[in-house]
Write a structure and sequence with these properties.
Distance between the termini: 81 Å
Structural class: mainly beta
Number of helices: 2
């Protein structure tokens, strides 16, 4: 608590500085005036001079041009910014107000190429250094490029071998600056943070904000965090990365873009509206799982609570690994975690509205504590979505919901004792599997609702062939003393199955599911007979095949066999039910787990739940909207035709103007509004008002 109070006190003191105390200092290499920094005409020509003059509350405006930390080849020379100073770049040199600046049109470049042009071995080791910057400290509108932090004489993580472009020092201190509208390109660190290193070691609390920044082609040669390395958590929770792009950054250890070495604090690491593309880790040896996280790697150390990463409204595109050896195996994932020194740390990761495309793997987590994750409203397209999670403790509930998997390879495993799958579209994937992984040594269950499976295949490695398949929902082997339960409710599949399978499963339950099958066997499990399962309950499902599969563990009740569920257009992904589908009002209400279907419509619309992923709603018009014939002025010659209503006959049509007229077509109508209530054989209704307009005379 004392950390928070100290931070707030800092805000109070800084806010108390009167506006008249603020000084604006100008820098322009082309200025020919008095070199005092008092105006554009008399601007400092050397950025060092301006920064040496500035104090907390001041602004430094820097005109376009290339600025070198040293002109005589001193590689240790760097720019240093005091806490509380706001440093702006991107001016033409004529602006009077900040709103007139166009930082992209007039780039201000801090360049590390101070020696032989094009020879990076004699470049600056660090470009900008911040010491314990407060929340009023700002760096805005700069290009940082060609730093080479390669000092072999200092410890890893020190200025000189880490954070080539920007080094923020807050060891046993605090750092809350904002870095805005900046570009970090082609910076290199021998150890960590090719572009940026944030040092919040010891009792430090660090949470810099990166807003609208680009990290391009930065590299950590022998360390982690190709773009950004942050050491330490924060007592203050802030948006860490927003509206940023990380493109083609590389690490030879962990975190192609970002590495976060957490500490026991209270903040989350938040990423929003950002893009990560073409980032990579370079795997230099077959040394197990030492190199992970082409996008981001987290080292969780919070045993009381958990490190938490939240990614929202972002794109994860084409991130991968590069192997520099041929033998053996290696692993990689876009997001990964493991403890540095086997600390007892817990980890939570949440993805919300994230697009994954053409990455090599998604998750790879290993902790001495526990891990749980959630995916909400995400899209995986042509992605490798494998997830490998190893934990030592029960991790509560993980969840995938409102998420689509299209043309992908693989699936995701959880170590949580509850794994929820809700509102999932799976189409044209290979080996699509969601499971409780093998080392979950406690009671565990998977509960799946509102799944759709279409066009999925299974690749058999022994034959190197693709076979018709579906979605696998499974549990790997565990000790017999632990219970494994799998359930699938209100889901649909066309020429695919959704399997409940695994090792030592106590109970597998299929309820209220609709399947249309064209094959007699689906890999890898055949049909619904299960191996290593004590009991399979098959209740209230509908299938277009006869009841020919049996097993001593299979209990079948109230199913509709040899019955077409009548999907509207399943080949195109439309799993709505046709008006006379036998699945309408045919389910078991007791099996309903969530209140909506896969489209977000309410369940149990007409007393009894429908079978399948989509609940039928009110009657609706398909391809034929109501036909209306206008009436001539003063004449009763208008008409209405609602025969295109999608309904199961017989249909009761009740018109407000003529209740006895139980037909879909009304003629002899004056201009005006007419209301119809229609009810079909399944009890579904529609109430609509149709206007008959006045035609031309």
């Amino acid at each position: 608590m004392k950390h928070i109070c100290f931070f707030l006190a800092g805000i109070f003191i800084a806010a108390a500085i009167p506006a008249t105390a603020q000084t604006r200092i100008f820098v322009d290499q082309q200025a020919v005036g008095a070199n005092t920094g008092a105006s554009w005409t008399d601007a400092f020509t050397d950025l060092h001079s301006a920064l040496a003059t500035a104090v907390a509350g001041d602004e430094v405006w820097v005109a376009k041009g290339m600025y070198l930390p040293d002109g005589a080849g001193d590689r240790s020379a760097r720019y240093e910014l005091l806490s509380g100073v706001r440093l702006y770049g991107g001016f033409s040199g004529a602006e009077l107000d900040l709103s007139e600046r166009d930082w992209q049109m007039h780039p201000t470049v801090l360049d590390g190429d101070i020696g032989t042009p094009g020879d990076s071995s004699d470049n600056s080791r660090n470009l900008l250094y911040l010491f314990r910057p407060d929340s009023f400290t700002l760096v805005d509108g700069f290009v940082f490029r060609q730093a080479m932090a390669d000092d072999t004489t200092v410890p890893a993580g020190s200025a000189g071998n880490s954070g080539g472009a920007l080094y923020i020092m807050a060891n046993n201190g605090e750092a809350y600056p904002a870095i805005r509208n900046c570009i970090f390109e082609r910076n290199t660190a021998l150890r960590h943070g090719g572009a940026v290193y944030v040092n919040g070691g010891g009792s430090g609390s660090v949470a810099p904000v990166f807003d609208n920044c680009r990290f391009v082609q930065n590299r950590a040669v022998m360390g982690s965090g190709g773009g950004l390395y942050r050491r330490g958590g924060s007592w203050v929770d802030r948006m860490d990365v927003i509206h940023c792009t990380f493109d083609s950054n590389t690490a030879n250890a962990n975190g192609g873009s970002i590495f976060f070495a957490d500490s026991p604090r209270t903040d989350n690491f938040d990423i929003a509206f950002s893009t990560f593309t073409n980032n990579q880790i370079v795997i230099v040896s077959n040394a197990g799982r030492l190199q992970q996280g082409s996008v981001m790697h987290v080292s969780p150390v919070r045993a009381n609570g958990a490190s938490k990463l939240i990614v929202k409204n972002s794109k994860i595109l084409n991130n991968k690994r590069i192997k520099q050896f041929s033998a053996g195996q290696s692993t990689n994932a876009s997001f990964s975690c493991d403890p540095i020194l086997l600390e007892d740390g817990n980890f939570i990761i949440e993805f919300d509205s994230v697009f994954f495309n053409k990455n090599v793997a998604t998750l790879d987590f290993e902790t001495v504590g526990w891990v749980k994750f959630s995916f909400n409203s995400c899209l995986f397209l042509e992605d490798s979505i494998s997830g490998f999670i190893t934990t030592q403790k029960d991790s509560d509930t993980s969840k995938i919901f409102n998420t689509n998997f299209y043309d992908c390879w693989g699936g995701i495993g959880s170590n949580s004792n509850v794994f929820l799958l809700e509102n999932i579209n799976s189409k044209n994937n290979i080996n699509n599997r969601f499971e409780i992984v093998y080392n979950a040594q406690w009671d565990a269950e998977i509960v799946a609702n509102n799944l759709i499976s279409l066009g999925n295949k299974y690749y058999e490695y022994s034959t190197k062939k693709l076979y018709n398949s579906g979605i696998e929902i499974g549990a790997s082997y565990s000790l017999p003393i632990y219970k494994r339960q799998l359930s699938l409710q209100n889901s649909s599949a066309f020429d695919n199955l959704i399997f409940l399978t695994g090792g030592n499963v106590n109970e597998a339950v299929y309820e209220n599911n609709a399947f249309y099958l064209t094959d007699t066997e689906y890999y890898p499990m055949g049909l619904f007979t299960q191996l290593n399962t004590q009991e399979v309950i098959f209740h209230n499902n509908i299938l277009n095949i006869p009841d020919t599969f049996n097993s001593p563990v299979l209990i079948k009740t109230n199913n509709q066999f040899d019955t077409d569920p009548q999907f509207v257009n399943p080949e195109a992904g439309d799993f709505r039910l046709r008006p006379c589908s036998p699945a309408i009002n045919a389910g078991d209400n007791a099996a309903v787990v969530i209140a909506t279907d896969i489209l977000g419509n309410p369940r149990i619309r007409y007393g009894t739940v429908d079978i399948g992923a989509v609940e039928m709603g009110d009657l609706y018009f398909g391809d034929h909207a109501p036909g209306v014939q206008p009436a001539c002025p003063g004449s009763a010659n208008g008409s209405i035709d609602v025969s295109g209503l999608e309904a199961c006959p017989p249909v009761l049509y009740q018109w407000d103007a003529a209740p006895a007229n139980n037909t879909p077509i009304r003629t002899g109508l004056m201009p005006g509004a007419y209301t119809l209530t229609a009810t079909d054989a399944n009890g579904r209704t529609a109430v609509l008002t149709v206007d008959v307009p006045t035609g031309d005379a």
